[in-house]
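Q: What residues go here?
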């Protein structure tokens, strides 16, 4: 099984947040992989109900965290979970440039946005004054686009070359990009393309997160990056 964190006002329902709450190792690994770039003033795009936010709040290098979420219902739950955390109910367009931002974190958000090139350009404008970093995580490989992707409001899944091109066109250098979760690619294909399931199984998510994912992630980060994966992890640095 795989964990994709759907954040979009275009979707309906609770998006399996209960099942995704079981993905403790997965969420921690994502934030840990991005943590070298999450310093100073940080924006979290598509905060949802605050599952990733809880991990970000534990990072020592983050001086200021501002979360952005367009969905009214998600914002209500977020505020109940994190009452002291600053939350902007809206989109990236409601974020003030201020004195500049050091980092933007966007986890499984870009695929929900039809005009993704414009979204990337908006990120770059906020990061440009300090040559900040965009920490970007998106679903990968269009060949495993499944009915559940459509249910979640995904317009696309990305290839490595496509994402590099779009980041560079938007004004980012791309010092790091790699496929993420090799095993998840095949689990996604089997469960959601072949079996055409439309929801996550809580016990399967728990098993994958506790048993399979830690070993797979250790191999991907310590031995070699996989040739394909269920997602893409990228870091873009805004050009001046």
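A:
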């Amino acid at each position: 099984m795989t964990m994709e964190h759907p954040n979009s006002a275009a979707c309906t329902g609770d998006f399996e947040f209960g099942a995704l709450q079981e993905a403790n190792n997965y969420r921690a690994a994502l934030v840990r992989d991005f943590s070298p770039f999450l310093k100073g003033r940080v924006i979290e795009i598509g905060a949802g109900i605050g599952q990733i936010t809880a991990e970000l709040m534990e990072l020592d290098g983050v001086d200021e965290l501002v979360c952005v979420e367009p969905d009214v219902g998600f914002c209500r739950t977020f505020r109940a979970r994190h009452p002291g955390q600053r939350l902007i109910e809206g989109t990236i367009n409601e974020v003030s440039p201020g004195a500049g931002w050091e980092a933007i974190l966007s986890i499984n958000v870009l695929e929900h946005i039809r005009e993704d090139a414009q979204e990337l350009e908006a990120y770059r404008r906020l990061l440009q004054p300090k040559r900040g970093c965009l920490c970007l995580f998106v679903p990968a490989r269009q060949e495993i686009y499944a009915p559940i992707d459509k249910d979640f409001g995904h317009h696309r899944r990305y290839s490595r070359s496509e994402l590099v091109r779009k980041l560079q066109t938007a004004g980012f250098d791309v010092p790091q990009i790699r496929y993420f979760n090799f095993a998840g690619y095949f689990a996604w294909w089997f469960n959601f393309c072949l079996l055409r399931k439309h929801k996550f199984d809580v016990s399967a998510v728990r098993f994958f997160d506790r048993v399979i994912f830690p070993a797979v992630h250790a191999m991907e980060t310590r031995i070699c990056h996989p040739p394909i994966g269920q997602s893409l992890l990228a870091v873009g640095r805004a050009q001046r």
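A: Context that may help when evaluating the design: The longest strand covers residues 172-180. Confidence is low (pLDDT under 50) at residues 1-13.
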